[in-house]
Amino acid sequence: MARRCEICGKGTVAGNSVPRKGQAKKKGGVGQHIGVKSKRVFRPNLVSVKTLVKETPTTIKICTRCLKSGRVEKLV
């Protein structure tokens, strides 16, 4: 299965890791210098939860934001 929330569709997003060297000017330094950017991946916080889908108990992957907001009722 893919790393994707089955409720809202949240998935992985690509971005950059930006290394910053030096002290900021407002802290008394000469300013920050940005190094070479490298690619990285932001992954969603997914949880496997047992819930009722069409009156049958099934396990689905959902993000913790959907779980916290109450979009899915957890089976106990």
Question: What layout of secondary structure does this protein have?
Answer:
Elements: E1 13-17, E2 20-21, E3 33-34, E4 38-42, E5 46-53, E6 56-63, H1 64-69
Antiparallel strand pairs: 1-4, 2-3, 5-6
Short structural summary:
This protein is mostly beta strands. It has 1 helix and 6 strands, in the order E-E-E-E-E-E-H.
Question: What descriptive keywords fit this protein?
Answer:
76 residues, mainly beta, two-stranded antiparallel sheet, 6 strands, elongated
Q: Class by helix and strand content? A: mainly beta
Biggest pleated-sheet summary:
2 strands, antiparallel
Low-pLDDT sequence parts:
none
Overall outline? elongated
> How many discrete structural domains?
1
Overall average residue pLDDT: 93
Number of helical stretches of at least 4 residues = 1
Structural Rg: 20 Å
Spatial ordering of strands, largest sheet: 1-4
Count all strands and give the number: 6
Report the end-to-end length measured between terminal Cα atoms: 24 Å
Order of helices and strands: EEEEEEH
Which strand-content bin applies to the residues? 35-45%
Helix content: under 10%
